[in-house]
Amino acid sequence: MTSEQNKTFDLSASFKAYDVRGIVGESITAEIVEAVGAAFIDVLGLEGETVLVGGDMRPSSPEFSQAFANGAATRGANVQLLDLISTDELYYACGALNAAGATFTASHNPAEYNGIKMAKAGAQPISSESGLKEIQALAEQYLNAGTIPSAATRGEIGVHDVLKDYSEYLRKLVDLSGSRPLKIVVDAGNGMAGLTTPAVLGDKLLPALPFEIIPLYFELDGSFPNHPANPLEPENLRDLQAAVVKHGADIGLAFDGDADRCFVIDEKGEPVSPSAITGMVARREIARARKSGEETPVIIHNLLTSKAVPELVAKDGGRAVRTRVGHSFIKAVMAEEGAVFGGEHSAHFYFRDFWNADTGMLAAMHVLAALGEQDGPLSELGRQYEPYVSSGEINSEIEDKAGAVERVRVDFETEDIEIDHMDGSTFTAKDGSWWFNLRPSNTEPFLRLNAEAKDQATMEKVRDRVLALVRG
After folding, report:
1. Residue ranges, CATH 3.40.120.10, the chain
2. What's the angle, vertex CA 354, arms to CA 348 and CA 360, rounded to 5?
3. DSSP 180
4. Which residue, 118, 121, 285, 450, has fewest beta-carbon neighbours within 10 Å?
5. Would the CA dihedral through 406, 410, 411, 413 be positive or negative?
6. Is 107 a catalytic residue?
7. Which is the CATH superfamily of the domain at 20-161?
8. Which CATH code for domain 274-383?
9. How far apart are CA 117 and CA 103, in angstroms?
């Protein structure tokens, strides 16, 4: 490792709250990654241990995986290269093999980005509060010194393919062999679902399921030639929606670039909200946990999820726990509560059986099971889980975010409402007819509004009133 003379490294631009993300060749380079690999071993005390390293289909991922492995081996860890993996494959490997690991991905970010998601043994997340800051500081130290000191014994680097084991594990959790035949369109967005879908849902590695899979953009291509691998943006779902209708499919699935999130489209080409998916999966996981003797299974949902979720959980004999937005909060509460399942409005779904980690594929399998065990279309099934009308997330560019929230509070204070400040400010009508949340972005000059009401007219009235006050 060589460092340019007099260059001082500051990695704060790429080290975020939960992961590392930067522009390739600028804020993330092979030299930086090698130092991060070394620091990862030192901070987590992994000398002499096995660590797992993989990456997604971005062009820089193989080089970065090798650089991280070199840094880790220099500090005395034995590295197993997992090669091309989805992020939930990393979590599977860290859980099943009880080893710490890292994967190179920038998830749904554009092609010029790459990054690192890291986990401790057992797939425990690493965030700025649990080691990421220390890894950053030590990596900067190594970079500024221009050298990584060698451990007494250099670690070895080997190769380990986990795709088949991962696929078999997921199939054990959800048995789809008895499903009615389903026609499924899957948009992999040129991301890692192009590799995992044929392995888990197809017959590439395991016996065929009663599914006809119509692939969209399964070629692994980190330049994303068809559309960005970010299904949260409605325009990125259009090809899938059109294909579902054209092929007369029962369901459409869209994955983000590293395949840890999954979005669902019904047979009419309409999105099924992540809140409805949370309710659908929660119902199945509560029933399964109660069958095995758990009295009141716990379900986690973030505060932007539809209020239909806690209502359904209570009705089905579970206990709903509300949490802040963000995967490190969800995973922490999952562990504290021993929760069986957790869902977010952003289509991250977490499972106790998956080491409390999020996996888009396992959530998709639960939806396929729910659809395949009954005869009705997904639009009818989904409607049971979406009794309310949601605004979706609306961003307003505001410099004085606190002032805008205060204007809303003053305007609504004469009404019969409750306000809580778990994450931003949530205003709830005591008669249950509507609620809305205003959350300031930590990184951008945005105030984010999410509103939900018993009907379209009420939702629009509340939404428009709040936006007028915010933007006033």
Report:
1. 20-161, 165-271, 274-383
2. 30
3. P
4. 121
5. positive
6. yes
7. Alpha-D-Glucose-1,6-Bisphosphate, subunit A, domain 3 (3.40.120.10)
8. 3.40.120.10
9. 5
Q: State the span(s) of the chain assigned CATH 3.30.310.50.
A: 389-471
Please indicate, yes or no, whether the overall pTM of this predicted structure exceeds 0.90.
yes
Q: Which two tokens stand for residue 15?
A: 């080290």
DSSP 55-97: E-SSTTHHHHHHHHHHHHHHTT-EEEEEEE--HHHHHHHHHHT
Among residues 14, 60, 65, 107, the one annotated as catalytic is 107
The residues near 48 (Cβ < 8 Å, ≥ 6 apart) are 76, 77, 78, 153, 155
According to CATH, what is the number of the domain 389-471? 3.30.310.50
**37 membership: H or E segment, kind and range:** helix 30-44
What is the chain's pLDDT, residue by residue, as a tens digit (472 residues)?
654 455 799 999 999 988 999 999 999 999 999 999 999 999 999 999 999 999 999 999 999 999 999 999 999 999 999 999 999 999 999 999 999 999 999 999 999 999 999 999 999 999 998 999 999 999 999 999 999 999 999 999 999 999 999 999 999 999 999 999 999 999 999 999 999 999 999 999 999 999 999 999 999 999 999 999 999 999 999 999 999 999 999 999 999 999 999 999 999 999 999 999 999 999 999 999 999 999 999 999 999 999 999 999 999 999 999 999 988 789 999 999 999 999 999 999 999 999 999 999 999 999 999 999 999 999 999 999 999 999 999 999 999 999 999 999 999 999 999 999 999 999 999 999 999 999 998 767 899 999 999 999 999 999 999 999 999 8
Query: What CATH class is the domain 165-271?
Result: alpha beta
Q: Which residue pairs, CB below 8 angstroms and at least 24 apart, start in 407-415? A: 407/469, 407/470, 407/472, 408/438, 408/466, 408/469, 408/470, 411/465, 411/469
Amino acid at 62: P
